Amino acid sequence: MVQTMERTQAVEVATAGADATTQKTLIEAIHETLRDAMRADERVVLLGEDVGRRGGVFRVTAGFLDEFGDARVIDTPLAESQIIGTAIGMALNGLRPVAEIQFLDFIHPAMDQIMNEAARLRYRSNNDWSCPMVIRVPYGGGVHGALYHSQSIEAVFVHTPGLKIVAPATPADAKGLLRTALRDEDPVLYLEHKRMYRLIKGPVPGGDHEVPLGKARLVREGTDATIVTYGMMVHEAEKAAAEVAADTGASVEILDLRSLKPLDEAAIVASAKKTGKALVVTEANRLCSVASEVAAVIAEEAFTHLDAPVMRLAAPDVPAMPFSPPLEHAFMVDAAKIGAALRRLLAY
Fold it and tell me: 100 vs 58, 172, 232, 323, CA distance in Å?
């Protein structure tokens, strides 16, 4: 394994001359992007619980141990703080670690390492050091995971300076954002909605496809109202917008944030000004959420263009997602709830 203190070299992903767009699931896009990065750059190493012999709890890294060996695909103890601490040490010694936390719910023991060490290394070293690492984390509900397997606590990390945070909603963005994250010189929290892994399928460009951090994606153009969201909620919003358009003729714009930090404030404000009405949707709890920040940006920067108050739709502020299927359904934000909120907004 090549170990070097040089941290400026980009991770070059092998393309094998393949530039064609192909249909893939979200999990296939992540798997192939990681594999290609490891083939192209020996500095890229994986570590986490069961990422080796089992291939990860969701099989994202299946086959990697056999191909790359246990020096680059490392099964760790069940100790999240140790996983991230080790990854930080690797990054400081010239490697490009990809650390997996099995579920976002399990990340709490590693918060000190992430928030006080990785996120602040560049600042505390007066820019002498950076911490190029990717933290892969499955998040989100709707999979009957209940407590400890369904949380969406991304807002905690969005509040931490020094971290970059992305949440792809499509296989194409899963590839593009991961490639960009692997090349970034700062720590990137890469959120993978577990319900989307095999449910969502779409075209993925071949070759050197990248998506810049901090750039939202216009999913659907519209003139009457804007929905701003990310992750699995993009797909629920698309269903809701189509249903409302069919019933009322309303033209609904949808903006997929893709990057939660940095946030594409320019795209958010431009869309809100264009339509005059904004609904911000998140699967997380409502209080102090990403939706709260987006709503605040719109209120500050687009107030005189609005024809209605900015609306937020989020999960209820209860301690955890229930295991009971009816209660889980009541907790989750879905197309029906988005549609109902959209109709209220359009009625102003």
Answer: 11, 21, 20, 25
- Residue 7: name the closest of 113, 128, 118, 99 by CA: 128
pLDDT of residue 17: 41
Q: The CATH number of 217-346 is which of 3.30.190.30, 3.40.30.10, 3.40.50.970, 3.40.50.920?
A: 3.40.50.920
Stretches in the chain below the pLDDT threshold 50: 1-17
Provide the residue ranges of all domains of the chain, joining segments of one domain with +.
22-204, 217-346
Q: Which of 332, 342, 278 is nearest to 152 (CA)?
A: 332
What confidence score (pLDDT) does residue 21 get?
Answer: 87
Concerning whether 305 is annotated as a catalytic residue, the answer is no
Annotated active-site residue in 31, 108, 144, 149: 149
Q: What does the radius of gyration of the chain's CA atoms come to, in whole angstroms?
A: 20
